[in-house]
Hints:
- Helix content is about 40%, strand content about 15%.
- A hairpin with a 2-residue loop joins strand 9 (about 295-300) and strand 10.
- The chain is built from nine helices and ten strands.
- The two termini are about 25 Å apart.
- With about 325 residues, it is α/β, with parallel strands linked by helices.
Amino acid sequence: xxxxxxxxxxxxxxxxxxxxxxxxxxxxxxxxxxxxxxxxxxxxxxxxxxxxxxxxxxxxxxxxxxxxxxxxxxxxxxxxxxxxxxxxxxxxxxxxxxxxxxxxxxxxxxxxxxxxxxxxxxxxxxxxxxxxxxxxxxxxxxxxxxxxxxxxxxxxxxxxxxxxxxxxxxxxxxxxxxxxxxxxxxxxxxxxxxxxxxxxxxxxxxxxxxxxxxxxxxxxxxxxxxxxxxxxxxxxxxxxxxxxxxxxxxxxxxxxxxxxxxxxxxxxxxxxxxxxxxxxxxxxxxxxxxxxxxxxxxxxxxxxxxxxxxxxxxxxxxxxxxx
Length: 323
């Protein structure tokens, strides 16, 4: 059958990007969640929320987590300011179609290089020369990023001496570097949520490798120069307090204005060469409607596998397959 609504590609693009909370209690309220803090009670309609980031001092009930999961909202436990990930929940889809394709592309050197070149091409207005080596393309990318830092420094008047991320001594970094780290962390979270919601692996990167968030870094790098770099410089130029909080709010607004989630989904489809419609077997069940249903069994002679729960050896007396 041809899936018109593409369960394999949930419409994460239409959701809100994220919500970061800390020092609060979260419980279920009707079919939504409620946040209790010093201000009072704030209801949150999680059906349209992509990701909930739980910072320090956060308590959440079992019922609230179930409600978020039922609504396809990724829950991430993170550090102060949202700059470190400790754990995350599952995304929206239960299909492995895209994950299997991602793994195949990542495991084969020629196809991996094709994906890498597509990723870099998205960052440049001009077409990259086919004769350029990967090292030469990385050189061009380095120039592009350095020029972006210099340009926004000149426009905003914020001094720039180079990128320095001091995770273990956060307050020793200058304001612009703290702003960049905070903005990038928000971007990583949204990219992480989109990737998991599409049924892909955050750890199977193409440009980055060896970390559980390698693919998150791959995708986030597509948008830093356009979104988080200008956001960080703009907020740093404002002489007011609460830098990290203002950066998060500014990023939230920029993500919404730029329709970032829509861009992420379309760019991933392009990068992995995902067709607008996916063909599936006529008898394939939708795992999104029954998340607990096991999938088929792998078989070397059938690309779609064979049905599970059946013995494929013949019964010597009846000649029928045992169930």
